[in-house]
């Protein structure tokens, strides 16, 4: 098995989730794809080191999130979340759930949303999430707990789920 | 219960399962960029970085040599027919009188680096003609303690850059001169501030 095919398989497997995670963060599919490509370029550059890590996906997700935060900081403004729902309806694997999910996430404070996305969408561990967010693991736990409580209330009235 | 155990417990929470299912449903239907494309982008960026580094080195070399030209004119009167040969940081022409002022105002051990920063726009086409001049030799000797490793690396990047066609046109003497011009001694001089201060002090 060659290094290139390992990399190719890894990229194929994780790319949709990478873009999905970045879209949940940015609200825009095009921007998410651009940021994902930048993260993949870093992956290509460092694949030999990354592939032997405990969690190559955790590394890639962290790089992508840090990059997204850095881009947003540079712009000093949050990029406007336009046609989020239209994008979701058009591009999600299960559009009817996606619209609801994206709508619910929008209602969460920034830190809670980030914690939920990294933990429950990207599938990072508590420690990986804490490292990506630059906070303590306890903060991740409390943020996700509060977010879940909020979402639970919202979902009580949800007929789709 | 440890943090990880607590989180594992959370993972069995049906609400969490439902939340994760809901979030997974947002995954877009996208195709990854071809690996070949990513590698081409990576290679292009690497080349661009090398070229940028090479251009920086050339700017230093050209700037340095144009100062050499100024000094030659001032001290040896080799170019008596041209009084104005380059421009100052503020865009004004530099005259022989300016150069004489600089030379007398500067301590001898730093005149080369200070003159370097007092130089203006790179003029490689002129600089090439004066590569082997005696003034350059003096400068080379005066800067023998420069960081030649850094200079050599910069030069190597410049010369190995496949898109750097200009390097083909430069004479072999440039190599040694480029090492001097890109040495840490020059780099450590705070360029703009020093240049401006010098110019203010010496301006007519």
Distinctive features:
heterodimer; A: 161 residues; mainly alpha; Butyryl-CoA Dehydrogenase, subunit A, domain 3; 8 helices; B: 204 residues; 65% helix; 2% strand; elongated
- State the name of the first-level CATH class of chain A: Mainly Alpha
General shape of chain B: elongated
Poorly predicted regions of chain B: 72-90, 98-204
CATH-defined topology of chain A: Butyryl-CoA Dehydrogenase, subunit A, domain 3
Give the helix proportion of chain A (percent range): over 70%
Tell the overall outline of chain A: globular
- Largest sheet strand order of chain B: 1-2
Corresponding CATH architecture of chain A: Up-down Bundle
Pattern of helices and strands of chain B:
HHHEEHHHHHHHHH
Radius of gyration of chain B: 27 Å
| Count of runs of 4 or more consecutive helical residues of chain A | 8
Q: Runs of chain A with pLDDT <50, length 5+?
A: 76-83
- Beta-strand portion of chain A reads under 5%
- Biggest sheet character of chain A: none
Oligomer: heterodimer
Q: In percent terms, what proportion of residues of chain B is strand?
A: under 5%
Q: What is the tally of beta strands of chain B?
A: 2
Q: Tell me about the largest β-sheet of chain B.
A: 2 strands, antiparallel
Number of domains of chain A: 1
């Amino acid at each position: 098995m060659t290094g290139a095919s390992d990399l190719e398989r890894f990229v194929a497997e994780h790319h949709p989730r990478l873009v999905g995670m970045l879209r949940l963060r940015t609200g825009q599919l095009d921007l998410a794809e651009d940021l994902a490509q930048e993260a993949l370029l870093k992956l290509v550059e460092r694949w030999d080191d990354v592939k032997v890590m405990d969690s190559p996906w955790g590394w890639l997700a962290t790089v992508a999130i840090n990059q997204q935060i850095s881009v947003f900081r540079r712009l000093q403004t949050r990029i406007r979340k336009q046609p989020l729902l239209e994008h979701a309806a058009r591009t999600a694997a299960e559009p009817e759930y996606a619209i609801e999910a994206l709508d619910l996430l929008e209602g969460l404070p920034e830190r809670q949303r980030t914690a939920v996305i990294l933990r429950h969408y990207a599938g990072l561990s508590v420690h990986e999430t804490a490292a990506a967010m630059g906070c303590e693991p306890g903060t991740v736990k409390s943020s996700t707990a509060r977010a879940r409580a909020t979402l639970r209330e919202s979902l009580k009235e949800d007929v789709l789920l | 219960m440890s943090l990880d155990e607590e989180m594992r417990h959370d993972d069995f929470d049906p609400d969490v399962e439902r939340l994760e299912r809901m979030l997974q449903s947002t995954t877009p239907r996208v195709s990854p960029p071809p690996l070949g494309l990513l590698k081409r982008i990576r290679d292009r960026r690497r080349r661009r970085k090398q070229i940028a580094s090479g251009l920086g080195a050339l700017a230093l070399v050209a700037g340095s040599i144009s100062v050499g030209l100024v000094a030659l004119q001032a001290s040896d009167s080799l170019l008596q027919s041209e009084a104005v040969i380059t421009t100052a940081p503020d865009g004004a022409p530099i005259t022989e009188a300016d150069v004489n002022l600089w030379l007398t105002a500067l301590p001898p051990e730093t005149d080369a680096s200070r003159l370097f920063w007092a130089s203006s726009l790179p003029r490689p086409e002129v600089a090439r003609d004066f590569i082997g001049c005696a003034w350059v030799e003096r400068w080379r000797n005066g800067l023998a303690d420069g960081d030649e490793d850094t200079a050599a690396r910069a030069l190597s990047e410049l010369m190995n850059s496949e898109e750097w066609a200009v390097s083909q046109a430069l004479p072999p003497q440039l190599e040694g001169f480029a090492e001097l011009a890109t040495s840490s001694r020059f780099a450590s001089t705070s360029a703009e501030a020093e240049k401006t201060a010098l110019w203010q002090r010496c301006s007519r």
